[in-house]
Task: structure prediction
Amino acid sequence: KAGVTQTPRYLIKTRGQQVTLSCSPISGHRSVSWYQQTPGQGLQFLFEYFSETQRNKGNFPGRFSGRQFSNSRSEMNVSTLELGDSALYLCASSLEVSGNSPLHFGNGTRLTVT
Amino acid sequence: DQQVKQNSPSLSVQEGRISILNCDYTNSMFDYFLWYKKYPAEGPTFLISISSIKDKNEDGRFTVFLNKSAKHLSLHIVPSQPGDSAVYFCAAFESGGSYIPTFGRGTSLIVHP
Result:
């Protein structure tokens, strides 16, 4: 069974640009959540989608947005990039909503903003 | 304010010995706890969990202990192996709430051969 796939693995963008990250969950998983990890920080929750609906949102500015498609694949978009957005962005899928079943993480997208 | 704290950024242990990773939390509503392991360039992988109705859960070499009164949990790895060298994240959530886990900042474990 294929794991969670995130593309691309690495991205370099300039301040002010926008970026879209993609996540394909494990087959059959309906919940997809996104996390930001920066050096010295834990995983900061961004948002969670279940059956194409955003269930929860973390404490991030509106520049961070996401969506989920009918096949459960999810995208995350960051507009007007800032230097502080440089981080590892992790996507996780679970069979049901987060908490009812363990999260399965992808290997992440490393975003560098210059 | 950090609701889940892993106060030791790193831990070094000899192969064969016990590794003890600690985690403290402040939110008394948290009732489900998980440990994840992360290797460099990979995403975290689920290791073991414990519900607040238990004070211990064991899975092979890994045991998690929960002390609700102290709001403290620990992960014991016995015996430690070099392949256990990774960053370990503690996570907690309130099952009657948003179900979103709150993660600690991680502890980097190095097991020396």
In short: Chain A touches chain B at residues 4, 6, 33, 35, 40-45, 48, 56, 58, 90, 92, 97-100, 102-108 (CB under 8 Å).
